[in-house]
Amino acid sequence: MNTQRFLAFYTPRAFWVDAPANLENIGSPAFAKSMGEICYACVFEKFTLKIARDGLLMLSVGKLDRKESTPLPNIDQTIKLWRNYLEHINSLYLLLDSATIRCSSASFFNLNEITLRDAFTIHLDENDEFLGMQTLTGSFAGVLQHDRLPSQANTPQLLNRLMLRSTLPSSVIHHAVTRYKRAATEPELLRLLNSLAKGLSEYKQGNYETAVVLAWFLIEFHLNAIWEKFLETENKTMPDGVLRFGKDRERYLTKELTISMIVQHLEFAGLLDWETFRKVDATRKVRNRLAHRMPATASRDEASIALHLAHEFIENQSHIDIDLNSSLSIMSGI
């Protein structure tokens, strides 16, 4: 029998795919089977994604999967493997969050970073029947895992949780997966989306300083890419047959110029419009303040500007439309 192995996760706000499970026989084997029914599947050259009725997302990325014949990885290899998988998971989650906004004109998820505490392995047989999964404790995912088990009692709390779930059409999932296919084939884009998801997650929890720093990494990456492309375009052969940028000049322009100088040059060259230049320069100063002064803080507006700049740059570079849900996750009052 061929066993399928996936890394799986739930979103903190659980959902049904296309239609709710039948709630008449909660706790029975039939109910557990209906919760685990595969309602969406995508088999792509880079990955396989399956999503169950109860919103469990199961992902297998071909290049990351260990063959049974290979030795067990050491601790460093294991950590790297998990990090790579979490990049995929958080990028997919960001795109799913974006797709619900784009397709339904309303935000559904409350995006937060999926970590090692929230993801787990699951096994299906060749017919997509459930075989077993790693059980989590200390995470919202553990509660959602328990909800689908046949041993779960038909309690008012469980019934209430299940009845409060919203339904997500598979068309919304398809919208997200279409864009995730691009990310799965472009490691650089995948890392950018993962970092944007992390920054947005920190922002939504009020960690504005961390959000600014994460967003600035993305902004600076994009600015350097624009600058290098500009230099490549301008590095023409001069009338005397010598390239415009010799080794020394090229080293100065690419290695020694500070990002503040690069930003100025990009605005002079018309590669940054005035409003974007002002926002970038202001965000740079906020990031420097956070890096060099202790204690230092960032405001919600400063973090929001930084994230939206990073978001805009990623959209422009990747040509993937991303709707950013920047509402806060903080409850009013304590």
Describe the protein's architecture and organization.
With 334 residues, the chain is of the alpha+beta class. The chain has two domains: 183 residues, no CATH class; 107 residues, no CATH class. The protein is 51% helix and 12% strand. The strands form two sheets. Strands 3-4-5-1-6-7 form a six-stranded antiparallel beta sheet, with helices on one face. A two-stranded parallel sheet has the order 2-8. A hairpin with a 4-residue loop joins β4 and β5. α6 runs antiparallel to α7 and α9 runs antiparallel to α10.
Write the SSE topology:
Blueprint: E1 3-9, E2 15-17, H1 29-35, E3 38-43, E4 47-52, E5 57-61, H2 75-104, E6 119-125, E7 130-133, H3 140-147, H4 156-163, E8 166-168, H5 170-185, H6 187-204, H7 208-234, H8 247-256, H9 259-268, H10 274-292, H11 300-318
Parallel strand pairs: 2-8
Antiparallel strand pairs: 1-5, 1-6, 3-4, 4-5, 6-7
Keywords, separated by commas or semicolons:
2 domains, 334 residues, single chain, 51% helix, 11 helices
